[in-house]
Amino acid sequence: MLIWLSTAVAYRGRAITPRMLSKGLRVAVLLLAALMTPAQAALAFTVTIASGSRAIYLQVGQGGYAGTHANGGIPGNNGTINIVSVSVPAAVIGSGAAQQMTSNSTVAQSPLDGFVFCTPPSQVYIGAWSRPGSSSSGVATLTVTTPANLTSGSDTIPFSQISWTMSGIGDTVFQFPNGSFNGSTQTLATFSANTWKEQCMTFSYENSVLPAAGTYTGRAVYTLSLP
Amino acid sequence: MRPFAVIALATCLLTAFPVHAMTQSAPATEPGGRTFRVDDSGTVVLDPFLEMEWQPVGPSGGSTIVSASTRVSVQLNLAAWIGQSSRIYMTLPRTSGPTVRASWRTGGGLLPGSLISGERALVYSVPIGSAILRDIIDLRLEVDSARLAGPESLSFGFEIELAP
To answer: How large is the ipTM?
Structure first.
């Protein structure tokens, strides 16, 4: 209060300062000023922003979002394991003519905002996000792990016969690389704090080996991890 | 000088320039004009703690920008500048944290606009007509998610620049 009064008097009338007033007058003016002074003004309004609680989400094919994220949707679990397959006509087996694979995934829309992004069944949606929370700025890593071979009893086809390309309707930013499975663990992407990446995978069978007749199966496991 | 006259003069000074006196201790400087912080103590933020969310970006896939919105009931005390030609700016000081882009829509009392932290943006540019200026603004905040490691406190303010 004393600082307020002193400043006010000095500001408009340099000829009059508190020093010119007797002690009694200063007290009187201070009391008067106290009655007139508004409450201490807050000269800013404050908004605090934060990245949210620690969480990660991965969806390959069918996912667990209830609604879309943009509209307040909540991520959840979905135990579905989608299947990608192709039947190679006997006449072209081992010809080297790549065979496009199809899936039983029906996911076309991005769970981020509902945009129709993928074209099932030829494409499989893949999307993930990482939110390390305030306690960490860690980078999440997306990997895919495959065994060395697809198997049919004791017969095998190298998993490396299967490749994928990434795209999406209207896609302009490629989040994940194209590639082929290599029968071990491959890193597909890293996620810095609070980032979301998504794309659509189109799988292809290279068809450059001559296997025994049969149904060959194998599982590719996608893993998102945050340290 | 007689005591009574001193008291009366001091009283007049305090009455005439209360806000000038209160805010001049930390003025924002502006060449050619006088700039003062505006008392916005009546301003209320509807949700002052925001968890940032990814922006819908459609076909381009993911995004590194996160955003959140809130509503702010702005109340500015302009009693000291009634009738004066002035410009009022919204400010967001730069901090050591990530750069923030703020954009807002208004109810018409203030101007809509946007700014980057460290800048100021014009929100009012007509002569001050009333002691209190109120408006509701829908404030949207965007930040590079990779730089938002922890909570960041953003202190918005208002300053008035009087015509020279």
So the answer is: 0.75
